[in-house]
Amino acid sequence: MGEDVWPGIRRVLAPNSSALTGEGTNTWIIGTGRLAVIDPGPALPAHLDAILGAAGGARIEAIFVTHAHRDHSALAPALARATGAPVLAFTRAEARARTRTAAQGVAGTAEGYDRGFRPDIGLADGAVWRGAAGEVRALHTPGHLGDHLCLLWEGIAFSGDHVMGWATSVITPPDGNMGDYMASLDRLAFAGAARLFPGHGPVVADPAARIAALAAHRRGREAGIVQLLDRGPARIVDLVGVLYPDLAPGLRPAAAGNVLAHLLDLEGRGRVAALPPGGADALWQRL
Hints:
The protein has 287 residues and is an alpha/beta fold. It has helices at 45-55, 70-73, 76-83, 97-103, 178-191, 207-230, 236-243, 252-268, and strands at residues 3-6, 9-13, 26-30, 35-38, 60-64, 87-89, 121-122, 128-131, 134-140, 149-153, 156-160, 196-198, 272-275, 283-286. The radius of gyration is 19 Å and the shape is elongated.
């Protein structure tokens, strides 16, 4: 089971395909003797069996989770019980507090958050785990979620949902933050990884070009929002209708979350304001 995609890296694809997960969640197994697992994925018994089968009887010595969304983290407890391996992830309590404060109670679409997720070992930014599978360095990349990590290993990076090859990341307040996301793109670019192995979709062969394209996309989306508000105040639903005219209905909540994240970022920079402040149906206007 599993697919060898790079020396020492095997992919096991979870069967949870959707409009937001693409073909499914990529679970990565690294190492050639004792192994480590990155993003065990959703809590599906068949996927647990597939991971253990792909390990081929080799010992799994660590389980890494890039961020606490259920399609990445929910299987971690079961995999830990099956292997005895500890679960490692970013755990600072304040990781989610910043965007919760900024959102001022505005409802988002954060139903995918794994609120019961508790790793055994917390990884701070820059922390290094050393094992037989190699050396894994944690790079804190908040934006998609406040606790998001990219994981650096052997000159490549496992980029979770921060950078994917098949789609842009969803940035949904109160747990997502657009300003953090843009800064984290810069951090990942500076890391200089030769390849990115994302949480969904194919391997990114040219990280610099992909990161630059994502940053340009977000700057363009911000410019589009500002141009619309220059014409007059508008609500998020109205902005989504203009900015995403052909979007499938099931993706509109995610689009609304992205627009809200842009608006909150613009608000923090003194460029727009909401009336009433923090209301889910606020009328946004230029300053």
